């Protein structure tokens, strides 16, 4: 536990494990990528219990000493693996929304986005349940400005939704609407993970959230 924000000296925060340092040279970048890809393969095929330094070294061909040079703990590696997955998912979601076929509806776009967002939280939990809870708590503290983020994410998926289905959106204040959409599919899934994790896998969860957002975006009286 450390004091994370000098402007709020009474707040103490447990920061999830992170890589020790960033690779700089081509050789070290390739080494780190090999370790992350191997770690991801193990996590997705065999689960968290199979992931350890010895197994990583054997499967990746990277010496244990080199692994620890960048990843002091397995949680630090999991954090890096999930960051890569989340970045891929965000970029892919923007592309997928914009590439929806002609005739697709606003509801189709909302459902696509929500299914991707909920899948991301399920993936993090599958990688490591304890890490998932700690990192989700931390993400919420970043959102509330209790701690400072090392990187700020942009609302690319909500922007894509507003662009792709502009003709169906009736709400007057579109900037405010985009903000509310982004916060809905950012904050509510985190609350589910922390308080009602079963909701993340319920089949009706995406439809319930989508119905709420669709009603907001298509009401001309708001």
Question: Can you walk me through this structure?
Answer:
- This protein has 222 residues and is mostly helical.
- The chain has a domain at 82-217.
- Helices cover 64% and strands 2% of the residues.
- It is built from nine helices and two strands.
- It has helices spanning 26-46, 53-60, 64-70, 74-98, 106-127, 129-143, 156-164, 174-195, 205-217, and strands at residues 2-3, 12-13.
- Strands 1-2 form a two-stranded antiparallel ribbon.
- It is elongated, with a radius of gyration of 20 Å.
- The N and C termini lie far apart (44 Å).
- The relative contact order is 0.12.
- The model is unreliable at 1-6 and 150-154 (pLDDT under 50).
What would you call the structural class?
mainly alpha
Please bin the fraction of helical residues: 55-70%
- Segments where pLDDT lies below 50 for 5+ residues? 1-6, 150-154
Shape: elongated
Q: Roughly how many Å apart are the termini?
A: 44 Å
Number of helices, where a helix is a run of at least 4 consecutive DSSP H or I residues: 9
- What is the overall pLDDT average? 86
Strand content: under 5%
One letter per element, helices H and strands E, the order comes to EEHHHHHHHHH
Quaternary organisation of the protein chains:
single chain
Largest sheet features: 2 strands, antiparallel
Strand order of the largest sheet: 1-2
Number of strands: 2
C-alpha Rg (nearest Å): 20 Å
